[in-house]
Specification:
Layout (H helix, E strand, L loop, with lengths): L10 H21 L5 H18 L3 H22 E2 L2 E2 L9 H25 L5 H19 L5 H18 L3 H32 L1
Antiparallel strand pairs: 1-2
InterPro entries: NMN_transpt_PnuC (IPR006419)
Family: Belongs to the nicotinamide ribonucleoside (NR) uptake permease (TC 4.B.1) family.
Membrane topology: Multi-pass membrane protein
Length: 202
């Protein structure tokens, strides 16, 4: 079989490849605090809707739709503050924001997991729902340029890798394995930026 024919590179694999490349680029740009992370994240989310639908990971499929919404939200917040076009600074997560996550993520996980378990063919509904809940929390913090978003991504990416290996999404598993050190890089670099901001204001 010709390596480059459509018979080999079928539509599903091509979709995963495009999602892989754009996903990798958008996270790298997020580490660098580059605004172009958001349009690339939208492209990646679009392609991964198809990938996760085929893999019966319905919560992850819905997550990509929510990512699209949160990316538009983050795109605006990174460009504007108080209605004025200014670069949003890196800040630490407030206690009330942690409180929201601690309450909503478990409730979301149970509710969505139960729904998927009872109404769909989802293979691992509660794992799917749990990683989706944490990912939404991480994306919400990232949209607001909160330093600790990277710690949530680090934790959930570690869980995602074996899930995608189990679902035989090997390219996606590789992508999330790469995301693990990138999340640490993001935390380290954003923490450095935060310290520099404080030094300027001191």
């Amino acid at each position: 079989m010709d390596f480059f024919t459509l018979d080999y590179w079928n539509l599903a694999k091509l979709t995963e490849v495009v999602g892989f490349v754009t996903g990798l680029l958008c996270v790298w740009l997020a580490v660098k605090q580059n605004i172009w992370t958001f349009p690339l994240a939208l492209i990646s989310a679009l392609f991964y809707v198809v990938v996760f639908k085929d893999a019966l990971l319905f919560a992850d499929m819905g997550l990509q739709v929510m990512f699209a919404v949160l990316n538009f939200y983050g795109w605006y917040l990174w460009l504007y503050k108080g209605g004025k076009r200014v670069e949003r600074p890196v800040t630490k997560t407030h206690n009330w924001q942690w409180g929201v996550l601690v309450v909503l993520v478990p409730v979301f996980t149970y509710g969505l997991g139960r729904y998927l378990d009872m109404t769909t063919e989802a293979d691992i509904p509660y794992w799917d729902a749990g990683t989706t809940g944490v990912s939404l929390g991480a994306q919400w913090l990232m949209s607001r340029k909160k330093l600790e978003n990277w710690l949530l991504w680090l934790a959930v990416d570690i869980v995602y890798v074996p899930i995608y290996l189990y679902k035989e999404l090997y390219l996606t598993a590789i992508l999330y394995a790469i995301f693990i050190p990138m999340a640490w890089m993001g935390y380290r670099d954003w923490r450095k930026t935060l310290r520099q901001q404080k030094a300027v204001l001191a």
